[in-house]
Amino acid sequence: MDFYTLVKERFSVRKFKEQAVEKEKVDRILEAGRVAPTAKNLQPFHVYVLKSEEALKKIRELTPATFQAPVVMLLCEEAEKAWVNPFDGFNSASMDLAIMTSHMMLQAQELGLGTTWVCWFDTAKVKEAFEIPDGLQPRVLLPIGYPAEDVEPGPMHPFRKELSDYVTEL
Fold first, then answer.
1. Which end of the chain is more exposed for a tag (fewer CB within 10 A), N or C?
2. Using CB atoms within 10 A of its CB, is residue 62 exposed (0-12), middle (13-18) or buried (19+)?
3. Full-prediction pTM beyond 0.90?
4. Separation in Å, CA 87 to CA 26, 42, 90, 96, 103
5. pLDDT in tens, the chain (170 residues)
């Protein structure tokens, strides 16, 4: 599948089959995140792969937004290890994490898996539940699995601004 088709067909999946995700596919998604570009290649993040019964039960008790996916990746940023712009103090940790997350989502799509980007959770409770060390901040949950047969894009999915609404050529 060419890149444009991949990004155009990808949508947020909020209903998954009970089917397990193969280790090779999980590893490939993690590798796609690992090779994602980051500011100065500092890679200021850590990924927790939640797939055991215990870990999934714990995250599902903290948010309904895992949609019963068989794998949930918990993506954390490490702001202290990120590049900081010397001109305005901008810390790249969240931007770097967003790039990594996008790579992982697109890799999942290519592998026939569905994902959705989730930020709807209490970060303090997640940090405590998974004993995430100081310096790491949970930012994204990435439920991953095989889309249910009847899953469809959300009603707002097809609506996009026109390029003229946000592009200025100088």
1. C
2. middle
3. yes
4. 39, 19, 8, 18, 28
5. 899 999 999 999 999 999 999 999 999 999 999 999 999 999 999 999 999 999 999 999 999 999 999 999 999 999 999 999 999 999 999 999 999 999 999 999 999 999 999 999 999 999 999 999 999 999 999 999 999 999 999 999 989 999 999 999 99
